[in-house]
Amino acid sequence: MIGDSIRLPVFIFSLFLSTLVMAEQADLNLELNEDEQRWLAAHPSVKFTGDPNWLPYEAFDDEGKYIGIVAEHLGLIEEITGIKFKMSPSKTWTESTEKAKQGVVDILSETDDSDLKSHLNFTQPYIANPIVIAMHSRENYVEGIANINNRRIALIKDYGYTPKIRRKYSNIDFVTVDDIQHGLIAVSSGEVDALLCTLALCSYTISELGLNNVKITGKTEFDTKLALGVQKDLPELLSILNKGIKSISREQQQTILDSWIKDKFIEKTDYTLVLQVIFAAIILLGIFIFWNRRLSREIALRNKTERELTAAEEVLRISNQRLLSHREHTPLGVIEWNTDFVILDWNQAAENIFGFTKDEVVGRHITENILPDITREAVDVIWDELIHGRDGERSTNENITKDGRTILCEWYNTSLYDQEGNVTGVASLVDDVTERVRMEHELQRSNLRFRLLFDLSPDPAWIIENNRFVECNQAAVMMLGYNNKEQFLDTHPSELSPKYQPDGEESFSKAERMMALARQKKVHRFEWVHTRADGSDFFAEVTLSLITVEEHTLIYCAWRDISERKQAEEELDKYRGHLEELVEARTADLAAARDEAERASIAKSEFLSRMSHELRTPMNAILGFSQILEMKATGLDETEKNHVKEIVEAGHHLLNLINELLDLAQIESGKLDFEIEKVSIDKLLKQCIKLVSMQAESRGVKIIDHVSDNGHIVQADLMRLKQVLLNLLSNAVKYNHEHGQIILDSEVIDPNHLRIFVTDNGIGLSQADMARLFTPFERLSIGRKVEGIGIGLVITKHLVEIMGGKIGVNSTQGEGSTFWIELLLSNDE
After folding, report:
1. What is the pTM assigned to this prediction?
2. In a domain, 452, yes or no
């Protein structure tokens, strides 16, 4: 054990020395040729990007500043060459590589074994970092991967060195983790035995995560080298960068590495045993030398030890400070328990997750508050294993928050030990994964719904990636006449169409253009000719949709057999010409009929106008003589006087009918004169009420006016509006019950319109009556005789509409009716 303990610090020190500095001794003067000098003068700055989250190599801090080993090397290259690196920040490494592929940036920070060599030329490497083995702190030094090939070894997903290790050690079933943090936590919790990663990234992340039970225990034969990828059309820049890299001294690079790697790791190294061995060796050597020299050396050793202890205490203090800062600012809840399940420590993230403050939980057996009954038994089993030293338990279970919500949490539990190896408590990391799990379940349901819709769709559909079929539904297999899905997917897309389309264009060229349009528009629809498995062709309507899934671009293709529609279109083309002739003939007939109708309407209006004028003259004579007879008939008895009175009333009624016919004729012929002006509703309505008051009193009808004092001004023809209001009021009296009532009211519909209501509690109207209310010469069946010929409301409707208004009615049979007119308000009312 002592041999392993001594061997491990020596090994760690050798690892730091093996973090190779690839550049030679610095050149004091950078020699550039004429082409390089001209290029540098024309391009004083270049665009650069890298990985936004890859410390200690490179990243952007909270203030957006570019930091890390690569950043400090770029600073040296700027000083040496005079080139200014203009940063192009990215949110993800994928975004950075896309910028490099598309030429958005000039330089990309990468490893020299990158698969981007088809797009970029790479400088000579300037940093090489070994791939090391990280294991639990209880493990001893290991020589290499072969010595732990029977253990659970993890590799980080998508790292450049991963394929090389898998190829050489194909007999090992490696575990894949998403990133360095998950890998180290898996080692800490015992899910895996070892993690393979670069020394710089491993030592830095151990320090940042504050993992005190994980260490570097060995080195592999692999390493990774950092270089700068330069666009292929910039050879001068590549040459200048190589010269700048060569001019960086070993001391400069070692200083950078020490600040980012060595110091990060040393603070986790325990020197106690090393110092004890050195102290013991010095004492043994002192036995064989003179007493005075032994004494002086012991004094010197004591002073040295005190200095080293002081330095170690400072390193420990800084390490503890960093650990406490990390505990308080990590998004994971950090909880420390004693062996009685009582909480000793509780960080801010734990408070955010569960809702309990630190003061509320420290010193309490809080599990009774955060554990539902259903999970207690399973948690007790995990706790028992932790207390008995079976380290590293990861679990997922439901928990309860302070406000009563049930959440799903992921727990990483580690046993804590004293110097004698006894379990003193448990440290837990907890993460609220409720939303993540919900989204995963929703994604699964969404995928299932899509799969059902896709597979069971009656319309054929398939998915193309890299010009190959990757998926299809059963409808596509059946429609194209294949035996099964596998036979369809083995077919190349070019085999589904004839060589030439009906328009004479080559299918391959046309297909390429359709794909390009789909990428531009996201969705593109067109007609195509497909070929079935038996070689027969048919027309199809194709819809291409562009889909991006995890950086992969797919083409979703849905289509329908339109052969019958095409055949119908051909038949339609045959009859289109004949149909157009029929349409032209029918249009001519309709025009002639319309002209005839207009002439008939004009003739009707002229007839009504002439008839009204011809009837008015003799009617006026009849009324005049009747009124004279009524005034001077002193020798007539009472019956004869009543007959004369009936002659006068009938004459007035007939004259009113003649006037209405004349108005209707003028309206229909467009000869009625209108003068739109500002009209006071208050004044006009009072006049109308006065004119119908005698008629209302004769039937005992009461008129209630809520309008006359509102001060409304409208745009209308004064005489025509008076005619409209008199007609509505007169009708309300005529069609009301004896001793009924009429209510006048108004409402401003919007800033520009006023609506006036005339409501009676009379006989009301049926739905059939309301449907023909504004039809000329229609008389309503109301059960008693009312004078008129059925054109009063027709004329009223025409007058209101000519003045730019509207008219309507609401009625319930047996309860009464409400007629309303809507008019334009004057803006300067």
Report:
1. 0.34
2. no
